[in-house]
């Protein structure tokens, strides 16, 4: 449950009792200066700062976080998907970043609808290659400009995306054993 208050003119919600860490966080301040209309929401939870941005700006924001000399988020520790079924937009892509320079972590999120592509950040962080393939494989979220977007955990021809909330618990072919072709 989010207990928050409105902050400033941009309407960002901050967690109560977090000493407004998100307001003074250097990455948030720089993002608000460079992309004033793109910082949709900033929340903190247990000392972790979360920034929600529009899907159309995710690539430019990630490149900025990587290249800005004061931030240098050179490590993409994880990239994952979240299914908010039945909400719309249904999915969220989450980028967990780390800066060796500042010893700081930042979570950047963007919402995406069913079948809508997200621009790949593989050209910024090479680690995104397999992470984006995993999100594509398990959620069906396509990544635009990805160099090799294909399934990584499931075999070619597998139908469905097993981490979606509407995927059958037993699987679509639970009563039929899978025998791979040799």
Commentary on this structure:
With about 180 residues, the chain is an alpha/beta fold. The protein has a domain at about 55-145: NADH:ubiquinone oxidoreductase Nqo5 subunit (Beta Polymerase, domain 2), CATH 3.30.460. Helices cover about 20% and strands about 25% of the residues. It is built from four helices and nine strands. The protein has helices at about 20-25, 25-35, 60-65, 130-140, and strands at about 5, 10-15, 40-45, 50, 75-85, 90-100, 105-110, 120, 145. It has a five-stranded mixed sheet. A two-stranded antiparallel sheet has the order 1-2. β8 (about 120), α4 (about 130-140) and β9 (about 145) form a beta-alpha-beta unit. The longest helix is centred in the last third of the chain and has 12 residues, at about 130-140. It is elongated and about 55 Å long.
Summarize the structure.
The protein is α/β, with parallel strands linked by helices and 182 residues long.
β-sheet strand percentage: 25-35%
Which residues sit in consecutive blocks of at least 5 with pLDDT less than 50? 1-19
With helices defined by DSSP (H or I, 4 residues minimum), what is the helix count?
Answer: 4
Order of helices and strands: EEHHEEHEEEEHE
Across the major sheet, the strand order is 3-4-7-6-5
What fold name goes in the CATH topology slot of the domain at 53-144? Answer: Beta Polymerase, domain 2
Span from first to last CA?
50 Å
Q: How much helix is in the residues?
A: 10-25%
- Oligomeric state, counting identical vs distinct chains: single chain
Total number of beta strands: 9
Return the CATH class of the domain at 53-144: Alpha Beta
Summing up helix and strand content along with how strands pair, one would put the structural category as alpha/beta
CATH architectural category of the domain at 53-144? 2-Layer Sandwich
């Amino acid at each position: 449950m989010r207990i928050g208050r409105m902050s400033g003119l941009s309407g960002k919600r901050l967690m109560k009792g977090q000493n407004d860490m998100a307001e003074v966080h250097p990455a948030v301040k720089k993002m608000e200066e460079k992309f004033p209309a793109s910082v949709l929401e900033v929340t903190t939870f247990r000392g972790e700062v979360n920034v929600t941005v529009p899907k159309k700006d995710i690539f430019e924001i990630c490149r900025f976080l990587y290249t800005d000399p004061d931030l240098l988020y050179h490590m993409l520790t994880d990239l994952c998907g979240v299914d908010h079924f039945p909400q719309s937009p249904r999915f969220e892509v989450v980028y967990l970043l780390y800066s060796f320079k500042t010893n700081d972590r930042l979570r950047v999120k963007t919402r995406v609808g069913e079948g809508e592509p997200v621009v790949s950040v593989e050209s910024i962080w090479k680690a995104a290659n397999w992470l984006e393939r995993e999100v594509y494989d398990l959620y069906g979220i396509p990544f635009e400009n990805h160099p090799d977007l294909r399934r990584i955990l499931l075999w070619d021809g597998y139908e469905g995306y097993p981490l979606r909330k509407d995927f059958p618990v037993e699987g679509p072919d639970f009563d039929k054993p899978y025998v791979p072709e040799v």
